[in-house]
């Protein structure tokens, strides 16, 4: 059996801002594990969740060697250049449907609060600015828990060519250094607020907030495959469960999962 990665003390870069934000961190205020290098924060958080870790556990890494996004795609995680974090949640079945939507709203809120940078969301799990990907969200569920992973590009980095063509970072957009720890603290505080809203059956307010942040994307054409056939339509909205509403001719379709390409 592969031994568990060894945590080290949380660097002051993160410890200071998290301490300052403690009263706003809600369920995420109690246990933060720091890894200088790890395969995947989602993997370690998932393993700890299976062992009974409390809701709100935070796994944070300076570098991932096997970070991933949706559909198994590689998430490039250079050391010191981004925020690579996963949290353990134990939501109700109804709340679990909107966890990714809530996280997208929280990440846009947190980045703007920490840096002033305004971003938007792209269904199902991206945060973008200037038409480029700034952050991604990956929710992986089990019977008893959901592990929510968030990756945020903070500093410019030497990404592979295919990634560099569609990625950006907070510092590249602002043209100045930003406090990586403050970005993390504000994103976790915003996520705590949105997750609490889910627990209070206030999902409608989160969906409304997501729609506002998705304004640059809605109305665009999208392409996807179903049953081996390629389809195209107009992305109109999301429904109250977070599914993408697409207009195809006179028909209206709901897309819950899978690959959607924005044209």
Which terms would index this structure?
263 residues; alpha+beta; BirA Bifunctional Protein, domain 2; SH3 type barrels; 2 domains; seven-stranded mixed sheet; five-stranded antiparallel sheet; 8 helices; 30% helix; globular
Report on this model:
The chain is built from eight helices and twelve strands. With 263 residues, it is an alpha+beta fold. The protein has two domains: 12-213, BirA Bifunctional Protein, domain 2; 221-262, SH3 type barrels (Roll). The strands form two sheets. A seven-stranded mixed sheet has the order 1-2-3-7-6-5-4. Helix 2 links the parallel strand 1 and strand 2 (58-61). The relative contact order is 0.15.
What is this structure's SSE topology?
Elements: H1 12-20, E1 32-35, H2 41-50, E2 58-61, E3 82-89, H3 93-96, H4 99-115, E4 120-122, E5 126-129, E6 132-141, E7 146-153, H5 161-164, H6 170-174, H7 180-199, H8 203-213, E8 221-226, E9 229-238, E10 244-248, E11 251-255, E12 260-262
Helix pairs in contact: 1-7, 4-7, 4-8
Any idea of the CATH class of the largest domain? Answer: Alpha Beta
CATH superfamily annotation of the largest domain: Bira Bifunctional Protein, Domain 2
Q: Judging by the overall fold, what is the CATH architecture of the largest domain?
A: 2-Layer Sandwich
- Along the chain, the helix and strand elements come as HEHEEHHEEEEHHHHEEEEE
Give unreliable regions as ranges.
Answer: none
Strand content: 25-35%
H/I helix tally? 8
The major sheet is characterized as: 7 strands, mixed
**Total beta strand runs:** 12
What name does the CATH topology of the largest domain carry? BirA Bifunctional Protein, domain 2
- Using only C-alpha atoms, the radius of gyration works out to 18 Å
Helical content, roughly? 25-40%
Supply the helix-strand structural class: alpha+beta
Mean pLDDT: 90
> What is the overall shape?
globular
Order of strands across the main sheet: 1-2-3-7-6-5-4
Cα(first) to Cα(last) distance is: 45 Å
Q: What is the count of distinct domains?
A: 2
């Amino acid at each position: 059996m592969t031994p568990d990665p060894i945590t080290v003390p949380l660097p002051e870069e993160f410890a200071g801002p998290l301490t300052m934000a403690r009263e706003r961190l809600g369920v995420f205020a109690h246990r933060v594990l720091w890894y200088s290098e790890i395969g995947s924060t989602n993997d370690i958080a998932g393993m700890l969740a299976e062992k009974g870790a409390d809701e709100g556990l935070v796994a944070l890494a300076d570098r991932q060697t096997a970070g991933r996004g949706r559909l198994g795609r590689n998430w490039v995680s250079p050391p010191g250049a981004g925020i690579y974090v996963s949290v353990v949640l134990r939501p109700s079945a109804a709340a679990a449907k909107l966890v990714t939507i809530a996280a997208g709203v929280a990440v846009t809120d947190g980045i703007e609060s920490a840096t002033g940078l305004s971003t938007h969301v792209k269904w199902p799990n991206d945060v973008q600015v200037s038409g480029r990907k700034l952050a991604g969200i990956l929710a992986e569920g089990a019977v008893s828990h959901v592990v929510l992973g968030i990756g945020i590009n903070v500093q410019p980095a030497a990404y592979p060519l295919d990634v560099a063509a569609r990625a950006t970072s907070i510092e590249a957009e602002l043209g100045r250094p930003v406090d990586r720890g403050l970005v993390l603290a504000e994103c976790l505080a915003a996520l705590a607020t949105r997750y609490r809203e889910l627990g209070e059956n206030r999902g409608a307010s989160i969906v409304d907030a997501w729609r506002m942040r998705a304004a640059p994307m809605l109305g665009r054409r999208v392409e996807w495959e179903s049953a081996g056939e390629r389809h195209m339509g107009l992305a109109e909205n999301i429904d109250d469960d977070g599914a993408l509403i697409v207009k195809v001719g006179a028909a209206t379709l709901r897309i819950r999962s899978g690959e959607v390409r924005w044209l």
